[in-house]
Amino acid sequence: MAQDNAVSPYAAEYEELCEQLPGQHLAWLQQIRGEAHQQFSQCGFPTLRDEEWRYTNVSPIEKKLFSAKPPLADADIQIGEYQLSDCWRIVLVDGYFNAALSDLSGLPESVAVMSMAEALDKHDDTIKAHLGQAVSDQEHGLVAFNTSRFGDGLFIQIPAGQALDKPIQLINVMSQTDHLAHTRNLVILEAQAEAQIIETAIGDNNAYLSAAVSEVFVGENAALEWFKLQADSEKAYHFSGTYVKQSTYSRFKHHNFSFGGLLARNDIHCDIQKAAECELNGLFLAQKRQHIDNHTRINHCEPHGISREQYKGVLNQRARGVFQGRVIVAEDAQKTDSEMNNRNLLLSDDAEIDTKPQLEIYADDVKCAHGVTVGQLDEQSVFYLKSRCIDEASARNMLTFAFANEMVTKIAHQGLHDLLLSLVLERFPQTDVSAEWL
Amino acid sequence: MSSSAEKIEDLIGQEYKQGFVTELETETFEPGLDEDVIRRLSKIKNEPEFMLEYRLKAFRHWQKMAEPDWAQLNIDPIDYQAISYYSAPKKKEDKPQSLDEVDPELLETYKKLGIPLDEQERLAGVAVDAVFDSVSVATTFKGKLKEAGVIFCPISEALNDYPELVQQYLGTVVPTGDNFFAALNAAVFTDGSFVYIPKGVRCPMELSTYFRINAANTGQFERTLIIADEDSHVSYLEGCTAPMRDENQLHAAVVELVAMDNAEIKYSTVQNWYPGDKDGVGGIYNFVTKRAECRGVNSKVSWTQVETGSAITWKYPSCVLLGDNSIGEFYSVALTNNFQQADTGTKMIHVGKNTSSNIVSKGISAGKAQNTYRGLVKVAKSADNARNYTQCDSLLVGDACGAHTFPYVEVKQPSAQVEHEATTSKISEDQLFFCQQRGLSAEDAVSMIVNGFCKDVFKELPMEFAVEAQALLGISLEGSVG
User: Fold this and answer.
1) Share of residues in chain B with pLDDT > 70 (%)
2) Which residues pair with A184 in a beta bridge?
3) How confident is the model at residue B245 (pLDDT cuts 50, 70, 90)?
4) Does residue B411 belong to the interface with chain A, where contact is any CB pair within 8 Å?
5) Is B458 helix (H, G, I), strand (E, B) or coil?
6) What is the pLDDT of residues A312-330, one digit of tens each?
7) Residues of B with CB below 8 A from A346's CB?
8) CA distance A346 to B413
9) Chain B contact set for A376 (CB, 8 A)
10) How many C-beta atoms surround the C-beta of residue B480 within 10 A?
11) What ipTM does the predicted assembly reach?
């Protein structure tokens, strides 16, 4: 891409920054960071000319410069309702691990859950073997940006055969204005391990930039369920890339709830091997001037893989939603079974949806389908509810809620389910009827 | 691989029957392209001054453009200076006034292709404009059409006879700088058909153009312009073939359709350019820009295409639905075999209120071919109650081919309703078994399944073309009856 005009202002500050990053003692890491920095200096952030970014303009983050500030010592951090009981918890405040808010008591000894900075000291060999392995070389500039300067993050390694009986909750809280956090998460499930991760992104009501990358390795026959709740401030910029490598017979489920952010972009890319199962669910609710972009890719590399994908969007006021889903079936990936579905509800004259579901198939013995709909509430249903003495606004909210709630009902964890339910209800308030039938 | 799978390959892998060359004395330009070539071209065609201006403008723009590379295609680089931009059978002093004066070799060629021009003259049926390399050699039924007020003639003739009409519409749907190939076409187009249906006229017969590339090392650049004035109706067919050659030949066409109030245009194509041999040598590079503007209220444009030929197909017949209540339709069967590559689809741009569009695309991919559907449905803010339904299915035959679907949906209007569905599968052993168990041979069973797969599109084709299309797929209708 033509980016000769000017090096991104972010690239210029790297020299100064790199000396404060964790993992100074690791030569290999310094090398990886250096290479990533070089790549970022050349390509910069993605532009609208990049096919994968044609609907999402990231230039505002270059106009308004965010910078990584040191952690505040005396910050008063409110997690409130987002803190789920019945979970191990690891909290990052402004991208830095916060021990006081975290709670890992009772975690089995063999399981490693810690901050990335700590893991770089204790598990540097494991990190060396995995870092950058789930991300393909062709990824956009934001990944290189993250790799070159990531600070803290979450490190999880679950040994073979170990199944965790409670989820691990990762809470990212942003508290400082104009702060820039680039967290890097590494999750490794060895063969037959099982785990649930609940990722929560929240922040104070101000502008900040969060550019996170997660790399996930799901070992043979292992199972991972990942819930993501993005409820960032309405002034925030949120970029998140989740790159998953699934081994043979593994199962990976991802539930993506995007409610916050001024500009939010989620990349979820899965490479799946023989007979692995991959399920991606998503719900995005955007209002005011929010822009939410979901970008998924499922790469069937080997035979007998199964993938299911369902994304739903509700766009209100001047919001814009984007869904880009791609399923690739490689030449050898016979007997692949893949379904993708994207349904969108436009509630106002100024809302916009751009959707791009793609199938790229190089094998013949496959079953692949995708479907997209864009529409509005069914007038007959609205009429039916009105004839039952429900006022128009409530009737519409009720139907919109029902549309969105389908994704919430898929959540088995009670605490998270209730939290999501209350957040969706908050968006679509209904008169007293709601209490009775919920 | 089962025996039935081999049968499928036999069926799909038929030979190219139109690959012969006609020996003719021709007048051909030296390969190469510059402003002089365009001036010579314009002079030979005896064109009005504005055309030369138009061409030069397009050419200057083209020089600044780069070939598009976003399609899912592998294209060997094209040397635009190695192509001859004009080739025509050598003419006698004057243009032939009737078919009797047309070179018998040419008539024979078209007879061999199944289009006996002289018979067409006698038997009531379809009016044909036959385009041979760079020029139109004959147009049948001119008189009868004139009675109805319909203008159907080569575009080069229209430029002389109706310059105002052509100038008014040419390039208004596809501007000269629209894309790389459209710009090239605007600079060097040689012939094509021009159709004007006046107000309130229902064209008394089907109009048809048959394109034939014959000469070696030439490109064919044809331009078709169809204008359907208020309350008119026309059905237009287009067919194309080329000889078998080891070199790739370039075909870059532009088709513009304009539909005014209550007008309807039905445009059907059976594209059977030489697809190259089994090893992917030779074949036509087919880069086509086709676009229709539904300018009037209640207007309707329907594209139907059967794409079986060409080494590379790059083609997106589109509809811009400007008028309220206007309708756009796209029905397509694209068959690719051996090393053929097709990247084709449509664009439906909804601007007017209550506009609707319907897309049915069927892709069949065999051998080592790659078949891509690429489509855009765009609903502008002004398009209240816009409606779109898209169905695109792919059928895979053989394990080395690919089928891809890249739909784009952009909606800015909440009352719009847009649906897209796509499936990809192969002919299943179960389906074959079911048919065979009912007493059908494997061959008939495949024929039946493939025909059923394409039925939604074939039923949109005019009768003559439907038959040709089915024959082209190498599958007889027998078998689907039982």
Assistant:
1) 83
2) A213
3) confident
4) yes
5) helix
6) 999 999 999 999 999 999 9
7) 411, 413-414, 416
8) 8
9) 414-415, 417
10) 17
11) 0.83
